[in-house]
Amino acid sequence: MKNKFKISFTVILILAITGCQNIDKKEKESVQKETALIQMAFGKWKTRNDSLGVELDVNNFENWLDLVNRTEKIVCNDSLPKITLTTDNEIKTIYFRNTCLREGSARIIKTKNVIGIYNNKISKNKEYGIPLDSLESVLRKDIENKEKNSELSESPEKLTICIQYDDKNDFKNLPNILKQLTTTYYRITIRTDLKILLVDENYFSPPPPPKAKI
């Protein structure tokens, strides 16, 4: 009887140890999976702290102008507007390079240094309606130009992507646009210093003349 009890106790002990080992193994695998996620940050200012980042969720905005206005408010409060994209093996954080523009201030940016994405179509200089399938080709021309063509970007460092939607178009596709932009840019340059602005239709309009003093 004692032998049977010892055998039973031994079997139970072995099963318990095996069970604990399996749990530990699963926990380690889970931790390894989490730490294996690739984390990338695009458009991050070198001199700004990560803690200043403020997340934007496109689902929280009724229209594009609200999203742009919120982006500008974040910037004017000395914070960093961003959108985070997460997949099974990757976390991408995209910081937007909008700057705080007070009333009457001018935007100093050369249009040749700009690639526009308007309602999911690409525009460059006077060419509009370029399909997104051509994104890599358009990006590559500007990135590799190095001042050879006066119609293209002066340098990769000055290249800026301006994204805009009108109120009639669904801007909820923005995360997909950002994913395609960052993936393509990184494939060409192996860099993450991509400058992206969220803009409205008035962004490139000249500022109104100063009010006359009475």
Question: Which labels suit this protein?
Answer:
2 domains, Lipoprotein, 4 helices, 5-stranded mixed sheet, 214 residues, alpha/beta, 4-stranded mixed sheet
3D architecture notes:
This protein is an alpha/beta fold and 214 residues long. It folds into two domains: 1-36; 38-198, no CATH class. The chain contains four helices and nine strands. It has helices at residues 2-35, 64-76, 135-143, 174-189; strands at 38-42, 53-55, 80-86, 90-95, 114-118, 121-124, 127-130, 160-164, 195-198. The strands form two sheets. The chain has a five-stranded mixed beta sheet with strand order 7-6-5-8-9. A four-stranded mixed beta sheet has the order 1-4-3-2. A hairpin with a 2-residue loop joins β5 (114-118) and β6. It is globular. It starts with a helix and ends in a 16-residue tail after the last strand.
Report the sheet with the most strands, covering strand number, pairing sense and barrel closure: 5 strands, mixed
Overall strand count: 9
Provide the number of structural domains. 2
Strand arrangement, major sheet:
7-6-5-8-9
Q: For this entry, what is the oligomeric state of its chains?
A: single chain
Distance between the termini: 110 Å
Number of helices: 4
Report the sheet-strand fraction: 15-25%
Helix content: 25-40%
